[in-house]
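Lay summary

Proteins are chains of building blocks that fold into shapes. Our project writes down both the chain and a compact code for its shape. Here are two examples, one after the other.
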Amino acid sequence: MIKMHGKKVKCLLFTLCAAALVGCGDGAAVHTSAELSETEAALSEGGGTADGEEETAAEDGEETDAPDTDENAEPVMEADFMAPVEMDETLKNQLTEEMLEENEMDISVVESAPVTKGCSFTLPEAFSESEDIEGMYVTRRYPIDASTIYYVALGRDVALQLMTEETFKAQAEENFRKEYGEEIEVTIDSFESIRIDGCPAFRILCHYQVGDTQISQLEYAINADKSYVITYSQTSDYDRMEEYEASAETIHLEF
């Protein structure tokens, strides 16, 4: 049986999805959107002498009093704040294309991406929509059976095509570290570049250990005019990988 709180299992499953990052019953498509947040930095202004005061004192040969210093005081570091750099979409695509060509990777998504209306696939029979998280589908026996399916549709990101086994692993582990302060090692069982309905995609099978529970995930990330990510997850207590594989075979883009 699962020996950790079901809510935490769900949060950990949700964190790795993404990356990166919906089950569509009966061929229906469900869509979500993601917004990019902007960071603003404020600069503080320091006080000083009045205009011309320091210059006048120097001319008259007068000494100005230096502020008292504490030899044991720690030096104050002045931080440089930079506003986030917004890259032109054309330049971003150009740089991505150059990197893809250098690494002999698929550049079709940069050259032309077909316009899609959505993504659809068939849910395994035991799953239904979660009441807590949009795009998450759970079993009827959840959280006893903590198997989940998560779907998200995001805006176009040509840089997704640069993802590798190493970058996926590093990002997943960093997500865990930031969200939960835990060092969780993610093991990649397979990482494949495939195509779904003519569009480049990734098929990633991985697993990781959380306490006494081992979690396995099968993820499909499709890179078209939008980015579609479907993540199938299960714990070691329930093996649904055969159902997941059957569901994955029904993944299609709608044009």
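And here is the second example, written the same way.
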Amino acid sequence: MNRFATKNDQSPLHFLPRIRLIYFLCPLLLILFILGLSSISETTVSRQQESLENALNRDIIHCYAVEGFYPPSLEYIEEHYGLVYDKDLFFVDYQPIGSNLRPDVTILLKQ
């Protein structure tokens, strides 16, 4: 007749190890989540910079192929070839050397 018997011999403190485990795991999971978001953010910025480099190189080559000269300025590429980038995030140093020499382009991340 033990199947109808209740266990009253357990103290209310038998949940204490589980509660301690929860207090340990919750901050640990939160820290791991924040580190994961930070890693994703860094990866996204590096891919944006790589994409900007590719787009800028493509537009410079396209301008030379179509018009017969390299773009005289970065504004020229933005106006005629539709280059758009986040100016708050990146600094583009565009130094034209001549109409028949490839310009020196440097892309820097603003921090």
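What can we say about the second shape? The two ends are 74 Å apart (CA to CA).
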